[in-house]
Amino acid sequence: MAHRALTLKYRPQVFADLIGQDHVSSVLARALESGRVAHAFLFTGARGVGKTTSARILAKALNCEKRAAGVHKSADPCNACTSCVEITTGVSLDVVEIDGASNRGIDDVQNLREKVRFAPTRGRYRIVIIDEVHQLSKDAFAALLKTLEEPPAHLVFIFATTDPQKLPDDPLAHAALRLRARGAAQGGRPAARDPEARGRRRRGRAVHAHRRRGAPDRTQGRGLDA
Ligand SMILES: Nc1ncnc2c1ncn2[C@@H]1O[C@H](COP(=O)(O)OP(=O)(O)OP(=O)(O)O)[C@@H](O)[C@H]1O
Ligand SMILES: [Mg+2]
Ligand SMILES: [Zn+2]
After folding, report:
1. What is the largest CA-CA distance in the chain?
2. pLDDT exceeds 60 at position 112
3. C-beta 179 within 6 A of ligand 1
4. pTM of the predicted model as reported, rounded to 2 decimal places
5. Bridge partners of residue 41, in order along the sequence
């Protein structure tokens, strides 16, 4: 149950609670509010700057039932509907979270592709979060890119890596909306609830979101009218 325990530990649950990542938050909020979302996102940044946290908030916002129904008019997830609660507690069938370091083979990616072929069970999307995606093997990468080239309409990938320069040929950067979170104390996992650490981070952290030059603007592609 270690996984559950990790999932349940304190994490910011709305974009506004992500300290020092305003630029990332606002890019995501704009995409969500405009109703146009990319099929793949790539979060890069040092350990503990909030990549996994951002990925989960984004996943919840994408699948939030109250947002979809138009009763929660914000980019943030409502954190109260069944979909939001299931994602927060780590039991959503529509959100698959895997660690690229321990699932790095071609078989792992093929299993994953098999799992996400079908329509989501509850939410609007099936969302695959792959942590440390640079650790995937070459073959696994190739298989993943095949899916990225022609993603089913219901599929959204959220990749995270501390080491984007290790991505082979950087193909993900071309396929994904890339968001880079940069911490002042690179390598330091922030103590989110320590007010002093918060202050330090607020002052020291700059966040950038940019699209690779020449990369297609996938946010303008298939729409999401949530
Ligand atoms: N920007 C932030 N604002 C508030 N809390 C944060 C922020 N970033 C991280 N935290 C806190 O730090 C903890 C670690 O964050 P998270 O797991 O999202 O980082 P990460 O970038 O995915 O790290 P890793 O590279 O180790 O996977 C979380 O529990 C979260 O509460
Ligand atoms: Mg993480
Ligand atoms: Zn919700």
Report:
1. 46
2. yes
3. no
4. 0.79
5. 158, 177
